[in-house]
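Reopening this one. Same input as before:
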Amino acid sequence: MLIKQAEFIKSSVDSISLPPEDRLEFMFCGRSNVGKSSFINMLCNNYKLARTSSNPGKTQTLNFFLINKEFYFVDVPGYGYARVSKSIKETFGKMIEEYVTTRKALKMVFLLVDFRHKPTEDDCLMYEFLKYHKLPVTIIATKSDKIKNSERKKCKEAIINTLKLSNDDKFIITSSEKKEGLGLVLTLLDEVCEKYPEYPILDDIEEV
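Same output, byte for byte:
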């Protein structure tokens, strides 16, 4: 797959404000500052598409990006940032849970973890939550350029063992700086799109 067009469509805070389910959706989740926005920008070859920040906790809505006019990338709020108030954390949790459990167009979740560190308790809880709801999950290990080659095997094993990944889960090591893993993710997007030829729904598509 070659991503030729990517544009921000809208932000949503509840099911009422979500776009119509006329296209496949790919969700990107992970702890705050794990590199979700940078990863999305790398995939789209547009480093101004998703807003990046050195300050975690900036994404506070479900952000929809229309890709090649065929499917959506959905960037959701990061979790695990201590300075975000308890009430906001609860709001994020309810918003994501409602989206994950009701959205039929959601066909793949990319769970991003930092390749440099053992997955956090929040990472494990998110993974278990997604698997409980029978959603296909691809683990994306970010920031591989920060790791020495001699440490890569140890870091990979730490993620696999901590999350207790199964053979059915896909695991891709990436670097937004060096574009490592880009081809593998684009190929995976192709595979998912081919699996659901009924999308996009071409008849009577509503404006978003």
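So the earlier flakiness isn't reproducible anymore. For the record, The chain has one domain: 6-195.
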